[in-house]
Fold this sequence. Notes:
By secondary structure, the chain is mainly β.
Amino acid sequence: MTVSPELRTIGAPRQAPQAAPAPQASPDNSATATATAREASPDLLRSAFRRHAAGVAVITAHGERPVGFTATSLNSVSADPPLISFGVGTSSSSWPVLSEAEHIGVHVLGDHQRELAETFARSGADRFGAPTRWSVGPEGVPILDGVLAWLVCRVVARVPAGDHRIVIAEVVAADPTGVGRPLLYHQGRFNALRD
């Protein structure tokens, strides 16, 4: 899921839980455990995904100005050809540029980059101003300094998915030589791996 445009903490759904159906007897006549189900909603989806730990990336692109946002929806799609995907909200301030960009940058963040992740997730932040360090990379894409890995990708598809678009892009350049441990997003917070 996309973290941007702002970090938010999602509370418990406002609906009262529905009663669980009575356990059904299994073929061996033992009772089967059933979970309490709730009616699907955007809040329920967010609450469930708060329990899913995800890697943190920043997606960048350049139009009239550089844009970027923090994403936790980055996925490897295919090794041959090398394809990745991520989701972006169509209400994101980055979407107008991303909707037309031919190339995008993907940056895998380290656990030393919480502040950078928060900056790119915060609505209205000057994401490319100090203290963010970046340079112009291949295909004119903004490349962030100090990341664990970066990729420059050519956009091959933008697939409508509710209030988001799933962007599929082919890797054309990369540098996976950064040092450190990955930054994770879990329970509405940025976290480091624990030993």
